[in-house]
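Minutes, structural biology subgroup

Action item carried over from last meeting: produce the structure token record for Voltage-gated purine nucleotide uniporter SLC17A9 (Lynx canadensis). EB confirmed the sequence was re-checked against the source entry. Recorded below for completeness.
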Amino acid sequence: VTLPGRTTPIYRPEPECQAWTGTLLLGTGLLYCARVSVPVCAVSMSQDFGWNKKEAGVVLSSFFWGYCLTQVVGGHLGDRIGGEKVILLSASAWGFITAATPLLARLSSAHLVLMTFSRILTGLLQGVYFPALTSLLSQKVRESERAFTYSAVGAGSQFGTLVTGAVGSLLLDRYGWPSVFYLSGGLTLLWVCYVHRYLLSEKDLILALGVLVRGLRVSRRTKVPWRQLFRKPSVWAAISAQLSSACALFILLSWLPTFFKETFPSSKGWVFNVVPWLVAIPAGLFSGFLSDHLINQGYRTITVRKFMQVMGLGLSSVFALCLGHTSSFCKSVVFASASIGLQTFNHSGISVNIQDLAPSCAGFLFGVANTAGALAGVVGVCLGGYLIETTGSWTSMFSLVAAISSLGLCIFLLFGEAQRVDLSPTHEDL
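Output recorded by EB:
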């Protein structure tokens, strides 16, 4: 692993390297704490503001309206000025917005408009995170260690969802939904202070802000021939798989709390908001370890990536389908845990496959892929709410998740590759 600000690779664990890995894991966790605050509080907020399913679907999906707009920008900025700087600057803004959301909602009686605006803004700010993180890891981590490193940092997404599900459910019952936003936003701002004080110098941030103010000027020699990049079937296969995995996860993330709350009214929120994510953390770490181990044992990289996607998109969708065909609370928790846990295998599949294909511009490429996933997420979350409202059954929503996952898996299995794309300029690109 190469530390931010250094050019020489460091492959042995060092205190500073461990500090960055742990810090990024925690940052990912806080990102998801803020992201899932609305899904966890959706039922209570709907009761307070009088929202029906369609209106709640608008608020739940509005996050992705903003999220899809800054993916490419975040990846490009990460490739140019350093992913760690992009992450810190965006986190300081989304932390403040999250903490201020309850106050914003009380400014007027137009609660739906204000909450939609707040979620769009949060999505805009969080949209740069994963492309910047991908850019950072693709430049600092060697291929044989990428899966575990990405999975370890990515485990923060399950950790953050777990914390919000457990602590947030308790706060929700005792102090009301605003307390969930105060907690996630406040913790994010504390994290920003820690990173600024101990891991990033003032000079680094000033230089990064200076570049942003002046604008990013790209010389002809540093331009990447994007036409060559997007001519490759393997690139489109990666984009399709990322689209499917992101869309499926966003739909489940948005609607699972409501599914359990309405299907099993007497169940405890801390159970269904905690157990699936508690399972997902070790599952994600195991997938990263297994992926790197198989590659180090001599298995072809693309074979390992496709196997991970069979688990992350294929088998997970089977358990999602099972959710719509059971009336048992225990079985539903097991199926939800299996589906969410297996989706963490995507970190060791498509997420690192993008880094395999084009490490020098992995942030940009991930931004393109995740933009497509976020756009599909907007449609998917709204369509899920529409299907639930019109059919009166949750089976249709889970069938939608399975169909999206299966389509992305088939495309990746047919056209996915792990060989680095040749980005040397052709005559027409010069």
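Discussion: Residues 143-175 form the longest helix (33 residues).
Next step: EB to file the record with the rest of the batch.
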